[in-house]
Design a protein that fits this description.
The complex is a heterodimer of chains A (594) and B (496).
Chain A lengths: L7 H17 L6 H28 L1 H14 L27 H9 L1 E9 L4 E7 L4 H17 L7 H20 L3 H22 L5 H35 L3 H9 L14 H9 L16 H14 L10 H8 L2 H25 L2 H28 L3 H21 L3 H32 L10 H4 L1 H14 L6 H19 L1 E4 L2 E4 L1 H28 L16 H19 L5 H15 L3
Antiparallel strand pairs in A: 1-2, 3-4
Chain B lengths: L4 H27 L6 H20 L9 E3 L4 E3 L1 H21 L9 H19 L3 H19 L6 H32 L4 H9 L8 H17 L8 H8 L2 H26 L5 E2 L2 E2 H24 L5 H21 L5 H33 L10 H4 L1 H15 L5 H15 L3 H26 L14 H17 L4 H13 L2
The chains are: A mainly alpha (594), B mainly alpha (496).
Chain lengths: 594, 496
Amino acid sequence: MEAIGFPVLSLIIFIPIVAAVIILFLPREGTDLIRGVAITAAAAMFALSLFVYLNYNASVADIAAAQSSLLAQAGRDSEIVDLNLRVGAESSTVLVGQEMTATQMFHDGLAFEERVEWLPQLGISYHVGVDGMNAPMVLLTGMVAVAGVLVSWKVSDRTREFMAFFLLLVAGVYGVFLAIDMFLLFFFYELAIFPMYLLIATWGWVPLREYAAMKLTLYILIGSVVALVGVIAMVIVANQFFLGTGAGIFQTAQTAGILPESATEFSFSMTHLTLAAENGAFDVSGYAGVDGLTFGRLWFPFIFIGFAVLAGLFPFHNWSPDGHVAAPTAVSMIHAGVLMKLGAYAALRAGVQLLPDGAQVHLPWIVFLTLMNVVYGAFIAFRQRDFKYLIGFSSVSHMGLVAMGISTMNLTGMTGAGLQMFSHGAMTALFFGCVGMVYDRAHTRDIPSLGGFMKVMPWVGVAFIIGGLTSMGMPGFSGFIAEFPIFQGMWRASEQIALDIGPLHLTNYYAVIVIISALAIIITAAYVLRVTGQVFFGEFDRAKFPDVGDITVRERFVLLFLGTPLVLLGMAPFIMAPMLESGMRPVLALLGGM
Amino acid sequence: MPFDFLQSLPSIAPEVGLMIMAVVVLFLDMYLAESQRRGIAYVAGIGLLAIAALTFFAWAPTADTQGLYWGGTIRFDTLAHLFKIIVLIAAAITCMIAVDTRGIARQGEFYLLIIVSTLGATLMCGAADLVVVFLALETTTIPLYVLAAFKRDDKRSVESGMKYFLFGSFASAIMLYGLSLLYGFSGQTNLYDIATFLGTDAFSTNAAPVLIAIALIVAGFGFKISAAPFHFWTPDVYEGAPTPVTAFLSVASKAASFALMVRFFTAVFPTDLVIDGQLISGFWTQLAAVLALLSMTFGNLVALAQKNVKRLLAYSSIAQAGYTLMGVAALTSSADIGVASIAFYMFMYTFTNLLAFGVLIYFTEATGGENIRDLAGLSRRNPMLALAMTIALLSLAGIPPAAGFFGKFFLFQAAVNANLTWLAIAGVLNAIVALYYYLVVIKVMYVDHGEFEEMAIPVSRPGGWLLAGAALAVILLGTVLATPLFDWATRGAAGL
């Protein structure tokens, strides 16, 4: 793709930072000005994100064609999914001549790249880019940022600090999605955590906020710092590999332009690490002096689960419902809508893409955790009386599907996981928006005591129903487009993946898991219908809710803004699915499939 | 090498400058009227900054000029250069914050003592001879004993000075014993000559004396950098001493001690030194790793229970010493990254800690409170002060974009690189524990409501600029300035 004249991705990351700094220096009383700056920044980010998305989408067909031809050159069939190529096979299965197919696919898929050396001695660069995997996430972040600023319009306690921290949070999220350098990814990951803490602890729901904010922060940080040590170790192993047996590969990659001229053997760049992964640098037996142990097998659980904590993976999901309930509406939206995807995305990038060998060993058991997410989350959601807790637990359940899609390790399932990330992001932001609007007026979230809100707030009612239909995977809505491929991928995977636990040899168990999770969708339908019935239908008690009136134009816009993509994607999956496929293909090639 | 006075001068130019400064301050104190003495602080602060700037620009070592000077007693290289600048900046900022502290602002001898202590600390950074090492250590510490007890009417301050003195002299004695052992069996006082001697066959039969000497010296350093289990004095001294003194001693003497420690381990006991079949560097690596683990864990766990901000920062400083010791432990297998990460950490730690103490000084001067609880509602009373404190605490916790993130990252990387992955894991888990108590302070400032919400907290204009500058430095060091600083630190490692 030809270069665009200006650094659009850097603009996306730095607009919110600059806006936040400007806001901090505005006078405290100038609330209108503060809001104006915030919404302008958010709108600009969204516009740029949409631009990036559409621009990338236009070239997806070319990228897919290029990928097929690369795979054909490497002698791999682009249709057949055969994981057995690598499962159980000895290390360094890669054939000479195709040693960088996947890396090249990944590299060629990147667009809007910007690369500036930051700490060259340590192989750290400011390197951002967009590929099929993160472009939808960038768009999602832009949407939720705009919606978040709009629903926080009426925050009156220290508006200045609220908006500034909110924009910093958005900047951090963007940074993680756009980073192609692992160090940069961590930098922004940690950057996002602090504003989130302060937003929840300061502006959240009083009874719970301090506890929930601290719990959330500690959970997420523990996961990420353990992953950080893993990635440092990974970079060191890759360095040794490229200095030793992989020296030739490194040179070839430089000549081929996959790695930049200035690249050194020591680097945090994902391209660099992908190349090492593809050539088996992390599959060498005897790591840490233990026979049969490879780097990938040891570190994958720490890196994958370390990030997946933020995606709410069972049993580390505990922070999530409390965090969502305690957070102010805008933060719940960005939290459930975008931040949880951040975890899944980072787990996919740093875990599966960089340690494919470890993924094949560990994902077959991690899938049980995702099953727990889906089923347990749904059952707990069913039992909730608190409107916001219900949405919080439904998020846990839906995010389980994302991790489940990743665990299939085939194109269908992983594309489904990507779609589910986007779909759930918009849907759950919509849900939290609805809950916030009801709570602002009714001052209670107790489901049984609400009722008949359809009459007074028809927009919220309709929006909630759209979200609900998406959430139960009704055809015509994006939820279906996402869940169907995940389940399909699970079926496919069930023929290929086996798990040995001691003497037990499990085969075809993915099929069992998918049946159970499909049944959990019924529970989802049940609680969505129950809450819709109880909150929005029935008799409205004017005496109980004297202040409840219809929502403002601004709020209607928020609902429309978040609801539209759900329907649009449901009707026309082709606006996103091919892009995600192109993004997942390099990962699949690394896993040895296709 | 023939003695050339002019060529030898740059190696001690900062010390000469400090000497002149000390005399100037002494005379100003004598001749200025009481009402005009506030000016002394600015003379001292700006003078120290000027020396720092001159050191940075004019008196920098190059590949040609680095080496031993003054009969081998002073080492002139980038490591010494970098740490001297850290110490000078720390002293300059301390003088300029002290100007708004009651009971100190107009006392000329306060600035005199700070300058003399700085003189000792800069000398420590370049010391290459056992005699100079000990002289420098004492020149640094003795003024600090006096400074800790500077508020004569305050019982806590006097107690703090006394404790510091007793523990300090004890530690000095232990260290001196270690140094005398080294001299005893080598007959040399120059660090590099001792290393040469230890490497010869003359000393190849028994490793025990060397190990004992190392243990004693490490114990002495452990006291200076307040590493567990030699940290006993830290909380009481930090709490009792006047806050500017606490700020100074928490950064300057710690940084200089780390410089000297790096010098000792790389010069006297180099990586490849084997005595009687025992790898000496293996011994001190283990020692440093254990001290690192103890300090981090102990400092952070005890900090959780603190209610006083100064005590909290004291325990946090014990933990920070622990993180930095990870860099020392990494010196054997990756000397350059190890040294560079220590230097980077100390550089950013100086700004960070001075920022935290600076905010605390203005807060305490206005309200009299120094408990965490007293900070409640600070973000409403003075949002900028709260923001500055937040930046400092985030940097201590290692959260980007504050410089602490890079600092910790370099240290962890050095540890992993040196095959000390377990230490790095212990480090990151400790960072989480630390984050908890830093976040609690931030929460109190932003979320809690205090009794005096309406009373604003005044900050003098120069003070405001100073804090803003320090906060900006912390942010810049964590983003764009990280590269040049790390470059510089790496060069320091290369010139050892």
